[in-house]
Amino acid sequence: MQPNQTLARVLAGYRDGSLSLDQAVEEIEGFRIGKVGDLARLDLGRSVRCGMPEAVLAEGKTATGLASIMQAHATAIGRSLATRVSPEQEAVVRAAVDGTDLTLTYRPEGGILILSDGTEPVRTGGRVAVITAGTADIRVAEEARLIAEEMGCEVMTAYDVGAAGIHRLFPALQEVMEAHVFIVAAGREGTLPAVVAGLVDRPVIGVPVSTGYGYMGAGQAALGSMLQSCSVLSVVNIDAGFTAGAFAARIANLAAGNREER
Question: pTM for this one?
Fold first, then answer.
C-alpha cells in the first residue's frame, strides 16, 4: 500500500529538520477537529488520514456562515476549498478576508472557491484526463478538474467530443492518452463514458450530468445508461464532479507512486 503522501511529506520534514517534533505531531494528528462556534466542526486531519482535502459544500449555507468556516479552516491548515459557490457567496467571502493574509481564488466555471495563506498543493505526478460530451457538461467537468488539481494532479482536458459527432473523439483522445485515469462527463443519454472505456486501457469514471430534455432528462437517463454499460467503468452520482475528481486523483496518485517505486 502506498503511504499517504501528506504523511510522508511530514515525516520527511521531521527527518531533515525542516519540521520540529511538535510541528510534525500537530500535522500528523489526523483526527484533529476545529470548531467554528456552534456552526461547524472542521475536519482538519482529513488530508493526513485520506490523502484528500476537506471540502466545504457551499450549497445551503449562508454567505456569512461560509465565510466564517472557510476563514477558520484556512487559518488552521493553510488552505480551504469550497464547492458549489455562488457569485453572491464569493463576494461576501472576499469582503470577509480583505485585509487578512489569506488570498482568494474563485473559479466560477466550476463553482470552486479557495482560500490560502500561500500553501499550495504538493505535485504528485498523477495525471488525470477530463472529457466531456458537450459544452453543457463543462460546469461539472471543471469541478472534477479543480479537485484533482487540488490533490496534486496534472489535469488534461478534452471538451465537447460527444458521440453525436464521434469523429471528434479520436484526435482528442490522442492528446490525453498519458493520463492514468479518465473522467468522462455526459448528459442526455450518457453514451460517451462507455465509448471511451471501450477504447482505453486505463480506469474510466463516468459522470452523468443533469442535462437533457423531458422524460428522464435531468441526468437520470445518463445515469441509467452508464450503469448498464457493457464496457467496464465506474459511475458516480448525477453532477458529482467532486467525487469523480477526488476518486480519479486517488487512482492517479497511486499509479504515479507505483511507477516511481519501479
Answer: 0.84
